[in-house]
Write a structure and sequence with these properties.
Number of strands: 8
CATH architecture of the largest domain: 3-Layer(aba) Sandwich
Bound molecules: adenosine-5'-triphosphate, magnesium ion
Oligomer: single chain
CATH class of the largest domain: Alpha Beta
Strand content: 5-15%
Low-confidence stretches: none
Distance between the termini: 21 Å
Helix content: 40-55%
Structural class: alpha/beta
Number of domains: 2
Shape: globular
Largest sheet: 8 strands, mixed
CATH topology of the largest domain: Rossmann fold
């Protein structure tokens, strides 16, 4: 771990923390956000590893301007034993990349055992913050990486289609969490029965189902309640053009709490900025070349907030 941070520098977490950036829609800016957040974390003095888990469309190496000879594929092929062996320096102090390039087509849909192996390896990377960039969509593979992270971060753009996909993504992620909690509390049958006749039982949301389970089986209900209370998805709205869209995050957070009883934290809005597009053409993250611009300042603020959240989580 990083030692003796200077005054004003954040203190690294005691154990590595995993952040995952996802969101249903393609092209909303997940990779832009992940890359620039990674640079921000590194600039704050914490050791960060960016992991490109978009095996069908890896492009973090391009955004960082590095060549990716070895990547996640070599773990699937058993060419490399550990992700720690394939860290690529990015030219930015404290920042390394695990590339998703060179992956074969079938690697985008790993089998269950491969997925578990990869998850174990991700949590064993030698860094302070491990930041995973996920692919678009709401498949179980994407959702499982999103849900496994300490800080699952959803990126949404303020367009009707992106918002629609974001709700679908959130629904898929929270439903999977909820049903896993139900299974752990050993009340799957009770939940299934209640859902089979949900209209008669007046169940229109997972929140109401939880209330029902608490009534029918208080111990299981409170166990599920505490498991779901620990779920804290985060949200970033990207490519904002209209002032009113800065409030979109609050609306999604409200809907999430109303439907699931889950507190979603809105981390902030990022404006649409031509410099972001130029930075991709130049293959140099904006956070590295123009750390004082508005986009970079907001990203740095979000990185600080997440690091502080991680410290609060570790210290209870
Ligand atoms: N804040 C921004 N301002 C201007 N343009 C942006 C911004 N964020 C993203 N973009 C544009 O959106 C494009 C897509 O971004 P990015 O590749 O990060 O999306 P993605 O969600 O990772 O896509 P995919 O689902 O295909 O992985 C970028 O190439 C850039 O042109
Ligand atoms: Mg991407």
């Amino acid at each position: 771990m990083t030692e003796d941070p200077s005054p004003g520098q954040p203190i690294p977490p005691q154990v590595p923390r995993v952040w995952a950036v996802g969101g249903g829609k393609g092209g909303v800016g997940k990779s832009v956000v992940a890359t620039n957040l990674g640079v921000a974390v590194a600039r704050l003095g914490l050791r960060c590893v960016l992991v490109d888990a978009d095996l069908g469309g890896a492009n973090l190496h391009t955004m960082l301007g590095v060549s990716a000879k070895k990547g996640l594929a070599s773990i699937f092929n058993h060419e490399s034993a550990s992700l720690n062996d394939i860290l690529i320096p990015t030219g930015i102090a404290n920042l390394h990349l695990v590339s998703g390039a060179q992956a074969l087509l079938d690697m985008a849909n790993p089998k269950h055992a491969q997925k578990l192996k990869l998850l174990r390896q991700l949590f064993a990377i030698d860094a302070d913050i491990i930041l995973i960039d996920l692919s678009a969509g709401s498949s179980f593979n994407v959702i499982d990486f999103f849900n496994a992270a300490h800080d699952p971060i959803m990126v949404v753009a303020p367009t009707p289609t992106s918002i629609e996909n974001a709700y679908h993504f959130l629904n898929a992620a929270l439903h999977r969490r909820f049903m896993q909690a139900v299974a752990k509390a050993e009340v799957t049958e009770l939940a299934k029965k209640a859902l089979a006749d949900k209209n008669a039982n007046g169940l229109h949301s997972p929140r109401e189902l939880l209330r029902y389970l608490c009534h029918e089986h208080p111990d299981a209900g409170s166990a599920i309640g505490s498991m779901m209370a620990g779920v804290r998805p985060k949200l970033i709205v990207n490519q904002v053009r209209r002032e009113e869209d800065m409030h979109l995050g609050d609306q999604i957070a409200y809907a999430c709490h109303d439907f699931y009883g889950v507190k979603l934290e809105y981390l902030g809005g990022l404006r649409s900025d031509d410099r972001v597009v130029s930075s991709i053409l130049d293959r140099k993250p904006l956070q590295a070349t123009q750390p004082a611009c508005q986009f970079s300042t907001v990203i740095e603020g979000i990185a600080m907030r997440l690091i502080n959240r991680d410290r609060e989580a570790q210290h209870g």
